[in-house]
SDR family oxidoreductase (Actinospica durhamensis), 249 residues
Amino acid sequence: MSSNNARTAIVTGASKGLGAGIAKALAESGAAVVVNYRADARGAERVVADITAKGGRAIAVQADVADGDDVRRLFARAREAYGPVEVLVNNAAVAAFAPLSGITEDEFQREMTTNLLGTILTTQSLAAQEDIGAASIINVSTAGTVSHPPYTALYVASKSAVNAFTIVAAKELGPRGIRVNAIMPGPSDTEGTRAMGYAGSDQEAQAIAATPLGRTGTPDDYGPLVAFLASDDARWITGDVILASGGMR
Ligand SMILES: NC(=O)c1ccc[n+]([C@@H]2O[C@H](COP(=O)([O-])OP(=O)(O)OC[C@H]3O[C@@H](n4cnc5c(N)ncnc54)[C@H](OP(=O)(O)O)[C@@H]3O)[C@@H](O)[C@H]2O)c1
């Protein structure tokens, strides 16, 4: 795996699911990892315990990414524990699938503030550090921004905005050596998708049929890609939005 030795990484929404897999992979690649969560302290502590049991470095820090004060506190705590933050994975997100008529103003606020504003706030905090050199931000989008499935309009719109933000931020931050990329995961087996009843559903069967590699994704599928994008091995890659979906599009 690519090396992120001695780097400080924040992974938002890492108490479970893809974020937990990404946090573990970054720790294996040598980074000291801040496992952020919103409510699931127990899940976050489990991820920290898994990392430290393998000799890695990690702490859990509660913060709501949609709250500017929380995000500034998250960065302050990360810097206090491990020094300047040079790797940021914007993974925290919420989703609710519904037909167009079911999209409410409250749900719009919830998804847009977590998925888009959260990504903007953390990016601002990373960039506000004047003592960082080369840094890497990886935003977790969705393959839905390519496949555009029905009943996902609000969620996919929020993630399409994340894709656009990624490309613009890469242009603004590139001159400082800060790279910004996004990955677009395909449907994956996580606590989040299980809670939505995705595992074993017709929707899952259709997605597998449309996936050349013929299965649902797992949290372990994304860590090595994120560790690569975080590392100097990816030093010439920025402003890219990369499909990681077993070929589903
Ligand atoms: N699973 C898939 O099929 C799939 C496919 C494509 C893209 N993705 C993307 O992959 C990422 C992870 O998805 P997942 O399925 O692993 O999600 P998940 O199992 O639902 O976990 C979501 C994580 O985000 C955290 N979170 C939610 N709101 C937060 C907030 N305001 N502040 C801080 N943390 C917050 C949760 O923390 P708490 O539990 O502590 O509240 C949890 O750790 C998301 O960006 C999602 O859009 C997932």
